[in-house]
Amino acid sequence: MKYPLIYEKSTTSELLNRLNNLTPQHQRLWGKMSVSQMLAHLNVPYLIIKGDIQPKIPFLVKLLFSKSIKKKVVEEKDYEHNLRTGPDFIIKDDKNFELEKKKLEDLIKEVHLYPSDYFEGKVHPLFGKMTANEWSVMFYKHLDHHFRQFGV
Fold it and tell me: What b/e string do you get for 91-126 counting C-beta neighbours within 10 Å, with b at 16 or more?
């Protein structure tokens, strides 16, 4: 499956429309997160790229798993349901739906407006240097996966 580029206005509009269709009453179709936890979870990659979160990744994890995980993250194939996630992405406590939704809306608007060359060669804390296309796939695929998880 070819994913749309996050740098295109039409993609940003599509994702924001899906986000705005979410309500606190939406129930998951798979997984364990509530809708508000899912929104907080979706904020994490944006906070990482902005430098607001700096994940601590053990050296052995980087050495042994970064290439195989990166392949799954950036390949143009939808995620399977119920995949494991990194510790920085696990949201255990309940979150305020409206606050997390607004935060995600603002982050999507900000980051998706960066030109694609901003991402070219940008270093991911686990995967190392990534192309602009890999960053785009990673962001879109993650949003799409969780929006589908909640039926939007």
Answer: beeebebeebbebbeebbeebbeeeeeebeeeebbb
